[in-house]
Model the fold of this input.
Amino acid sequence: MESLNPTQRRIHQAAFRLFAEKGTAQVNILDLAQEAGVARGTIYSNIESMEGLFESVASHLAGEMHERIKKSFDSLEDPAQRLANGIRLFIRRAHEDSQWGAFIHKFAMSNTSLREMFTSQATTDLLNGLSSGRYRFQQAQLLSVMTLVTSSVLGSIFLVLEGHRTWRESGSDTAELLLRALGVPPEEARALATNELPALPTLD
Done:
């Protein structure tokens, strides 16, 4: 991930909040300067374009979450438990940080960095699960399986953000149903989806 100086970090954090709230088209330099508490000239001297700023914010967000999820898997080998935990960690974070959840929900399907945040680790685990016999699907279906996982997690985040379900309910249901779809027996899928969820590791 790129390293930011304090002013750039302040601008990025302000942009993240505005993008999560308004989307990309409705944010302008004046909004950003006011949200960041800096002069417009400071914005102009620290960003090349609003599009570039959005991409940088999305890339930073994706890289940070990917590394934290990956770190949480250090001592976990079962691909089914890794998938169940990963799904629930995303949904729990959306509950704990609603702006993060709103940003992910708005942009994950349309932004390459955010899509990769969902798919890079999961693809490896899905293929490992397939080769070990943990999962049952055809390798040619991998892209469809990844789309199923991603869209299910985003839908669950929406339910949590709108207050329709708790993160625990939504996270466990989503993990259980996806594991069952992949061939894990129902009782085992439920157990994997309701195990105590570890804290999301911080980055050093």
Remarks:
- The mean pLDDT is 91.
- The two ends are 13 Å apart (CA to CA).
- Residues 60-194 form a domain with the Tetracycline Repressor; domain 2 fold (CATH 1.10.357.10).
